[in-house]
Amino acid sequence: MASQSPAGAEVSERSAPYRAGWAEVSGLMDAGASWSGHERNCAYLNLGGGRFVDVSAAAGLDFLDDGRAVAAGDWDGDGAVDLWLKNRTGPQLRFARNQAGGRHHFVAFDLVGTRCNRDAVGARVEIRAGDERWTRELRAGEGYLAQSSARLTFALGARETIDGLTVHWPGGEPQRFGPLPADRAYRITQDTDEPLALPRRSVSLAPDAAPWPDRGAAARVVLRTPLPLPPELRAELYGPREPDRVRIVTLWAHWCAPCVVELEELARRSDELILVGADVLPVTVDAPEEVEAALALFQERVAPSMNDPGFEPVVPSPEAADVLQALLAHVVGRRERTALPATLLVDRRDMIQVVYLGPARVGDLLEDAHAFGPGATDGSVRGSFPGRWFFGVPRDLGGLAGDLRALGRDRGASFYGALHALQGRGVAR
Predict the structure, then answer these.
(1) 26 in a domain, yes or no?
(2) Does one domain contain both 366 and 310?
(3) Domain check: are 180 and 224 in the same one?
(4) How far apart are CA 65 and CA 192, in angstroms?
(5) For the chain, what is the domain count?
(6) How far apart are CA 396 and CA 267, in angstroms?
(7) Which of 13, 75, 189, 346 could disulfide-link to 112, CB 3.0 to 4.6 Å?
(8) Per-residue model confidence as pLDDT tens digits over 249-300
């Protein structure tokens, strides 16, 4: 860290180095850096007597991933514990199937607490087989950001039975059980007399080829928390246009072939967009010396396809262009310039609702304009994928204000800075 953390949340000269340090770290992370990269997974073989040997390569776990977490569990029910690996880099999730199942014996236990916590977290199971002893404890978390299966699995080698087991329940009396046959799982409920043998679980895990992404479609990002446009940007983009409309703000350039194709399709179906109350604002991000060429290309390729009244290209000021890029970087979480085309769907209250990275389909725009245009969609179901949210995700409006201030765009910085102050008082998100 750059300095000792401040005692409170106040902003002062003493806390400035600390905040600047965090800003630098956040910038590195946004650029794709890692807290501690190249953390490859390691697997060790227990030789007994406190000795271990690195068998990462032999076990097939020595991936080039930047690993973060591992969770263990017998996924396919064969008695051999499999691994789920979570990485910072892609693939972000790997399933490592243990194919030793069937060659050795095992026994597994599910614990149910009655007088202790129901999940029996903290319970310790000891088993005996001949002169061998094994002990495992049920924990609520393992390693870094990981939770393994609550089923405790013991590898028995050539042993076909266990001579006995003891369950030490949290805060309760231990229970002892007699001999049990191997190669099955048992449910042990606190204070019951006998373990309950569970039916053998078996699943098919045939490998399947991952589908190739549709390169012709945009990445559609539904904002969990909508982001307001600053008044100056709104006034420059909209001008005297009719109020209470949905705005489809498309960033394009004359040298971007997919951009022109997208604009042609938007022009051909502009009457449909007008019917759902949406206006198209093609914002050129060409360099000043190339704006004339961009406008000429628009009139040649896009304008002939328009249905009356159509739409006209917008040439933003340098300040507006910087603010738009900062907003995209804030939403996407990357500081480098966003690839084109990129589209913002802005609702009737001037809030960014959806961002499309790549060529946006008109069908998606029509559906989203209808769904998000009024701006009153329930936040719990907002997302790019199926599912529900059960917690709020406040925006880093202070960070956005800082980014704009660093660009010299003080008006936008003041707008989001004021929102950040309201956010601190619980008025804004």
Answers:
(1) no
(2) yes
(3) no
(4) 46
(5) 3
(6) 36
(7) 189
(8) 999 999 999 999 999 999 999 999 988 899 999 999 999 999 999 999 999 9
Tokens standing for residue 338: 């966003």
306 and 354 housed in the same domain: yes
Whether 91 and 159 map to the same domain: the answer is no
For residue 214, being part of any structural domain is answered with: no
Amino acid at the residue 226: P
Residue 57 structural domain: 44-96
DSSP symbol at 307: P
Whats the size of the chain, residue-wise?
429
Residues paired with 321 in a beta bridge: none
CB neighbour burial string for 53-85, b if at least 16 within 10 angstroms, e if fewer? eeeeeebebebebbbbbbbbebbbebbbbbbbb
Question: Which of 138, 162, 197 represents a domain boundary (last residue)?
Answer: 197
In a domain, 21, yes or no: no
Mean of per-residue pLDDT scores for the chain: 87
Angle, alpha carbons 118-122-127 (nearest 5°): 105
Largest CA distance in the chain: 88
The answer to whether the CB of 248 falls within 8 A of the CB of 280 is yes
Q: Is the pLDDT of residue 1 over 50?
A: no
The residues, any chain, with a CB within 8 Å of residue 326's CB and separated by 6 or more, are: 400, 403, 404, 407, 409, 412
Cut 0.70: pTM above it: no
Asked whether residue 410 is assigned to any structural domain, the reply reads no
